[in-house]
Amino acid sequence: MGASRSSEWGALGTLGRLKNPEYQTTPQAPQNPRTPVAAQGGHPAERQGCTRPLGRGRGSSIHPGQHARLRSKMIWPTFRARWRVAACTSVLAFMQLACAAAPKGPPRVAQAERATPPSAAVSDDGFAAAVRDLLLSDPGSSERAARLTAIETRQMARAATRFKSHSGERGLATVTGALYLIHTGEPVQGVRGPAAVEALASASRELALRGDEGRSVAVYDLLLDGLPQAQRPPIAAHLRAIADWTRDAVVGEGAVAAAGTRERVAVRRRLLEPSPAALSDAVRVTADWIQRAVVLRDDFRRTRVQPAREEGAEAWRAMDVGPMVLASLYLRDADFSGALTALDQAQAHDLMTAERPQFGAALEAVVQERSVAHCSDLLAQLRSMAVRDASRGDDDLDDDRDLFGAAAFAVAGECYRLDPTVPQVAMALGIALGELGMAEATGAVLLAAVRAHPDAGLGSEVLTLSLASMAGEEDAGDADAARRTFQAAQPLLAVLGQKSLAGKVHPSAARLRAAMGEIELREGRIDRARALLSQSAEEERAGSVLLSLSRIDWRDGNPQVALAHLREALASDDAGRDPALRGEILLATSEVTRDVGDAAAARTQLAQALRELIAARNVKSGDLRARVERVLARVLDRFGALQPAQRALERAYAAAPGDKRQAAQTIEILIGQAFVRGDIVTAREGLQRALAADLDGDDLVYFALWVRLLERQLHAAADGSPDRVFASTPEDPGWVATLARFGEGKLRGDDLVSRATTPIQHYEALFYAAMDHRASGDKRGADELLRQVVAGTGVELSEVTLARDMLDPTHGQLGGLPPDVVIP
């Protein structure tokens, strides 16, 4: 659009504004670009003498951490990442198509049957259905008030838990989700309890670190309302400090730039604070900002004197974006009439018509007729503004994208209330719920649409979103939330399991079950994992699933069953496409065969893996090449070829530069192999590499712990690196912090065992207690504990592999390298 502007303000419009980094909570899904108005015969703003300022792009992401040190088999991370990519592509492609096909028809208000009765409390298990029922409740009804209080109470308790687990971004997203559900004037009892106060206090600290004054004010206001009188003075002091900062920040700025600064703070406060005061303040400040920009424009027209550069850029933003901001302050509550009235009162309606005619038309249409068709049109406009798209050249929207996202969430909720069967509405809402800490409600919200439209396209998008939600919850260390997300998807699987859709829905129901089975396996819930993986394998013979089943069978003392599963896995389609997976299967086959006493056959299988992996080293994908090299390193290690194995790990590290997940998996193998061999030099080098790569704090604690345990066993002087890692891990009841205290020598191995609360923690604790025994010279006691680790349910733990190799150092050694193989 900018190409058709006149350049009366010249270079004054070319500088971007200072943009404060924000935490993005809006759904990251692009919509159809608006048709450039310039293509319709020139943009109306050309008559206003403005040049579009060039802004700077901005983005943010949530970087999930791992919650346990798992076996480096590399199949699940790739499987999980592959479907996360699918969720970010196919879902968004679906949204682009679906939003262009909003249903046109008479108004319809959902009469959907409620799954839960209104109550004062909602359990975690009932949360998904309760969110869906809340979204269907009539605005202002007693039903909505009751459901809202229950949901807020539960959501705030979950936020507090997430903050405690040091997941600040996830905790803040959860608080944001809770507050986005509340519309202005609605009851806020759910944000007044002890858990809510704890969550809001944690959110205030997170926002302070981000320098987000507006949202900090909102959270402090809510805290004031929920705290006893005696605890309010410090909060009031924070509010005064922010007011002083805001006042001082505009000193020396021009009238329009100062108004823009105030607008940013007021709008961000409005995002989270559902009070009439926050709304009226934001409306007043935004209207003033727009009016000052219009005055500046009129002065320029009259005098032809260019304003200061910052003034020109801010005036442009105010006239281009201001009317939409003003409207969205009300759309944050799905208050369509209030939005239109505010535009009229601020005399900004003409600017809206000139600058954003499609947005203005969509708003007017939904005010005239509150139908799902008109509501969906407005939703499409808001979503297109909530997500940055460089191809549209819409940098002016950057400062207010979160507001447009919040408005889109509310409008999507109203569209859903009118008709929960519209696919694009349900998908938009499902994506938003995932971003706002309510991923498990996605399945419940999508169910009505899937029942009304049981086709392969929608089914594929829905299951892709469900799979991504499960992976996201596990990445955040919340396996229970992943289970609830999977459980909420069961009705979807029932609908999509009809014969007419067999083989047409991708990912399939079998893949969803396999994903949940892998999560259970990593959590040490082996019976649940076996059931899910077996059901998945019956429906779809996937090599990765059969490989996991073989590990369970081997652990259960059924090597022949394990070998049968491995033979099936080797013949699977995915093993044929994925050389790293095929190498994993051959390596596992060799290990099981060696375990039953057939060393010659085990060597033959290992040699086959070696040849195939060497032949696959030149694959184009860096991700796949890194995986191939890691499996190759493990195969070479089994042949006793230590230097070639080290070179393979170096190549794996170089194949995916900057990828912390890949780096962590490579370094884990490096330090793990060194740990078994008693190679303190290589182990320390691995830890230094992990520190230089700035890996996730949990990974660093495990790696530092392995180095420290090796130092104790070898009675080597500590080099200080593990201590620095442990010291950087804060004191809290979490498991990783407990391991750090063990590494510091503040806890004994027996203390770890007594503090473990999950199967995975229990077997990790047994392993580290065994290392305590080894360091003290009690090899017999250590070996007994290691045997318990190998026999336990932590099949996917790296510690299980380490324990097996330590119990029998020659277990995996199958002689020297084949003489006919050229080793890279």
Give me a quick take on this structure:
The protein is an all-alpha fold. The protein has helices at 75-99, 127-136, 142-164, 168-180, 194-210, 213-226, 233-249, 255-272, 276-303, 309-331, 336-345, 349-355, 357-368, 372-386, 401-418, 423-435, 442-452, 456-475, 479-488, 490-496, 509-522, 526-539, 543-555, 559-570, 573-577, 579-595, 599-615, 622-638, 642-655, 660-677, 680-692, 697-714, 721-727, 735-743, 749-755, 759-775, 779-791, 798-807.
Helix content: 55-70%
Mean of the pLDDT scores? 85
Q: What gap, in angstroms, lies between the N and C termini?
A: 55 Å
What's the quaternary structure here?
A: single chain
Please provide a written account of the structure.
- The two termini are 55 Å apart.
- Helix 2 runs antiparallel to helix 3, helix 6 (213-226) packs antiparallel against helix 7 and helix 10 (309-331) packs antiparallel against helix 11 (336-345).
- By secondary structure, the chain is an all-alpha fold.
- It is built from 38 helices and no strands.
- The model is unreliable at 1-107 (pLDDT under 50).
